[in-house]
Here is the input.
Amino acid sequence: MGTTQLESVPEPKYWHLKTVLTEALDSEFSVGEILPNERDLAARFGVARATLRQALEQLELEGRLQRRRGVGTTVAPPRVGVAVGTEQHTWPGAAGDAWQPVDSVQAPPPAAVAAALETGADEPVHTVRRSRMSHGQQVATELLYIPAVSVPGLTAIDAPSGAARARAVLRELQHLPLEGEDRAVELGSARADDAKELDRLPGSPVLVVTTRFFVQGRTAALSVATYRADTCRLTFGESAGVEIHHDPEKRAS
Here is the structure.
């Protein structure tokens, strides 16, 4: 592997270096591979280590690299494609759903959720927590709010706690005739609990996808899914659910 010297360019040197590093990632490295240390990389590209760090930080922000404690800097897997605008409607937990149930509790939801579900401010609802994995890494977490009226056949005997109860709530939800759903996406900041689950710092950028599920003209369930913004991208089309894009050419840069 030879030494590549950077020529004088009008843009910041670290930004040009980011472009050069991106080309190297695409042609020389595979997902999960550990990059050489900073000293060797700085020598290869003929830049100061401070310039190199700026470029690496930018690539990490864009989701091309991951810094793992005790491991080093590795090539990140392709981004998760979050499909929006689809006309195919299915309940959470249906066949092919890649989300994993974690647990379910009954508690009053946030005020905005209670308003959307048209429940009382202090009325407990089922809150199902689920996680989404990609290449062995958690890339999203979800809170699914379901009022008791949407799952009338659920009993504590069927599923007392944990992931089993979450699955029982989702199974009961399948009995309702889903009429449609709408979805909104916005950029947000990771709350402390979400940041811990997603292995990010509090305040890190996230994509928040809010989905309302309708039955007989009312909101029968509401999902708030939080995705790591550095590992996810939005996709528009007819494909339903959440897709994993393994084609390097489709990675966001």
In short: The CA atoms of residues 116 and 219 lie 7 Å apart. The helical segments are 13-28, 38-45, 49-61, 111-117, 162-173, 192-198.
